[in-house]
LLM class flavin-dependent oxidoreductase (Archaeoglobus fulgidus), 407 residues
Amino acid sequence: MGTISLPPATMNGMRKVIIKRRVCLGFISSTRLDSFMKSDDWGLLKNLVKKANYLFIEDRLNYMRFGNIVSPPFSSVERALKIALQSEELGFHSIVFPDHTLMVPPGLTPNALALMSAVAVKTQRILLGTGVTDFARYHPSVIAQFFATISHLAPSRVFLGIGAGEAMNIKPFGISWKKFKMLKEGIEITKKLWSGETFSYEGEAFRLKDAFLQITPQQPIPIYLGANGRKTRELAGMLCDGWMPILETPKTYRENLKDVARGAEKANRSLKEIDTALQIYTAIDENGDEAMKRAKQYAGAVVSAIEKVEQAGYALEIPEDFPKKFYFENLLLNDESLAKFAECSLKVNEEIISDFFIVGSVEEAISKIEEFERAGVRHLMIINIGPDPKFVNRVYAERIIPSFSEK
């Protein structure tokens, strides 16, 4: 942690400005804020924050950051690596690696942690994190050691994205799975292991005796929770540094953010301490027509969150036995599950897709991002579904990212 030294005239109007690795907290008196924001020192500070890829949190400044989700399946591992490395060149603030053993649609699905390690040593600026991994497939000690190690390879550029787990990655392999208990206990254990202390832990999912690691993080590693239910959203507010759900509309995001705030309040924390992110499908083209055609091919994703579809004010005619809660937690890659999934996908219309996705022309995309920004999103993590992925990348690099960073 270091402190920025500014001229006395500027310091006179500030209580403190502290920059930590990855998180910059600024507390500036309101009487001097406007003049400070117009000064050269303010510009220098903003540029430093952006170039270092820190998150600047203050009452008057919360600029949107953009992440690129490198999502399987891929044509090759080399292709996956190339997509990830291009993210830094394009100006994205983060690369997110979904951690799947199996994936829908099926195809080449490499290990996310191995891919993340390769990218860590070939990049200089961009943040790297999972989106998300789980404590069912990896014991907390394995996750804690991996992320502690990678924090030395990519100092100040690593975050742990964690979730409750998904059936397709767990049940076929006979792995024991206690969703919420594993999640909560795993987060607590991981934090304790990162502290370097020797400790014992007696939980329902995990039991440790005199446990410790022989490597600790070079800097604090933020934990982001891929929470899509009320209990896990509250857990994000209580224990985590970021919230990164998937499949939200501006309306549902605004409402569900209240659960995160409630959890933060229970832990005597402020919501401002939490990076409010969102993983979202994005399809953009010149006039929007081809983008919608492409987005319809991913309508099944919306079906995985029927509870949120209803929360957003829509009604879908689906079988009574179809789960309303986050369906990816229960989806298996067998003929019966996939057939039911495909059948329900046909019920998703363009209005619903437009609400849950960023889809359309460049102007429509920017307008939708602004809606999410007003709903509280501060870190937008995109799943680029085309129709021309290169065009979408150029749009973000040349028009979207600069316009939101300069606000």
User: Anything to note?
Assistant: Residues 2-57 form one domain.
